[in-house]
Structures are given as C-alpha cells and as structure tokens.
Amino acid sequence: MDGLIYLYGLTPTKEATNQSFPSLKGFDGEGVLYTIHIGKITAIVCDLNSENYSEESIKDRINDDMEWLQEKAFHHHETVLKLSKMFTIIPLKFCTIYKNQKSLENAVQSNESKMISAFNLISGNEEWNLKIYCNDKMLKKQVSQSNPTIEAKREEISQMPKGKQFFEKKKLDKLIESQLEEEKNKVSEQIHLHLREFALKGNVKRNWGNVVTGRKDNMAWNGVYLIPKSKIEIFLEKIQEYEKSMQKTGWQFEASGPWPAYHFSSFS
Predict the structure, then answer these.
(1) Signal peptide: which range, if any (predicted)?
(2) CA-based, 20 to 30 A from 167: which of 1, 114, 146, 248?
C-alpha cells in the first residue's frame, strides 16, 4: 500500500518468526497490524492513509480534539502492552510515523547495533514503576517536633523579645516547609537506593501534580526500574514492607507493572 507507516515497536526477528502474530486492529481502526522484517530486527506496524494522517492533520487533532487524542493514545498504549507480553519489544512513542517503508528500513538499519544492545538489556527483565505519596500534614507535624534544626531555631526565638518573635516565627514556618521537603526527598531517596539493589537499572522521573494523580496526598517520588524476572517478587515484597512500616506516618506506595520498557530502550 502506498501510504504512511505507523510504528508501534521493534522486536528481534528470531522472536517474530518463531510464533504466530496476533490479529490486532491498526491505528485507524480499519487496518490491521503486520510485521516488516529488516534483517535481525522486525518492525511491528500498520498502514495509514497519507491524507488523513499527515503531520499537519495529526498536529491539529492533538491540539484541538481531546477525545480523539485520548482514544488514540489509549489504543497505542494497549497495543504496545499486548505486544510486550508476547515479544521482547522496543516500544515506540505515540504517533511514530514514517513516510514509507524505505524510510523506516533506513532508520532501523542505521541504528541496528543500538537496537540489538537494547534487546539484550531488556530481554528477561521487566519495567516497573513506583510512586511514593506523602501526607504532608502528618509529616510536617513530625518534622516540626523532631527536627534538630527546627528545635534550635525555636529555642533561639524563645530568647528574643516578644516583638521580634512574631517575625521570626514567620521565618520558622518557612524553615519547617523546607525541612519537610528535605525529609521527603531523603526518605524517598533511601528507599530508591535500596530498591535499586534488586534492579539492573533505576531512574527517577518527574513527580506528578495532584491534578494528574487525582489524589489529596502529594507525590514525593516517582521511580522506574528494570528488574530481572527472578527478582520481581522480592522487589514487590520490599515495597510492601515499607508500606506496612510507614503507613501510620503518612506514607503510601503504589507499584505498577510490568510495563513496556519505554524508559530503558528509547529509540527516536
């Protein structure tokens, strides 16, 4: 077919040829997914009409049609997730589109060694995500009562004249806020470093705001880990141990996975 090619992911050709390929609907809801073998690497793709899915028309849809964007982003995510359960796959970002098969082949061939290295890294391993949430009010109370820096400042204020104490107490509130953030980062980083002992790799992502999470508690940490399948169970057990021991002090843990290895096999 003469048109655009939508790329979902890349998998080793030896895997693609050793099992039957699933019947899955394509990006436009009409065509189906199929494979293109490019030497040792196989691309999992679907065809798109070049008029309906030009770069300009997709940009317009993304900017102006939230319903379309949500539907297509969900389709991409679910499709890549299904494929990752069957193959070792380098997942591509949403709306990775090539003008034709030749341009796709050139891109794969010029990056073959990097892709094979990525396959070697992610094969036999799983990507998991851990989000840590914190009840700021509860932790703030603990920090206010037990932090030595704050205690020293509070003692210093108590020795001041009454008039000056008012302004210094305002500064104390800001100090408590800063110490709260330091405490959250310190605790979360210690947990992250401990969990990395069970992972091949562990990266820190940007925290999500409450508007995105839909939660009252603030996100204190957002980590992603590439873990050998043999260590998944102990990794999750350690998270449960943290949950049990820290829940009463306002900490909550949300582990999810396995996910396609987006963070450990990036290819643009």
Answers:
(1) none
(2) 146
* Strand-pair partners of 44: 9, 35
CA torsion 86→91→97→98, rounded to 10°? -80
Q: Which CATH fold would you assign to the domain 126-259?
A: Alpha-Beta Plaits (3.30.70)
Query: Which residue matches tokens 């829940």?
Result: 247
Contacting residues for 214 by C-beta, under 8 A, at least 6 apart: none
7, pLDDT greater than 70: yes
Listed by start position, the domains of the chain span 4-123, 126-259
**Which residues contact residue 120 at a Cβ distance below 8 angstroms, ignoring those fewer than 6 apart?**
none
- pLDDT tens column, 177-203: 788 888 899 999 999 999 999 999 999
Cβ–Cβ < 8 Å for 35, 44: yes
Token digits of residue 264: 């450990």
Q: Range with the lowest mean pLDDT among 28-42, 104-118, 147-161, 231-245? A: 147-161
C-alpha–C-alpha distance, residues 168 and 220, integer Å: 28
Measured between alpha carbons, how far is 192 from 199 in angstroms, rounded to an integer? Answer: 10
Q: What is the CA radius of gyration of the chain?
A: 25
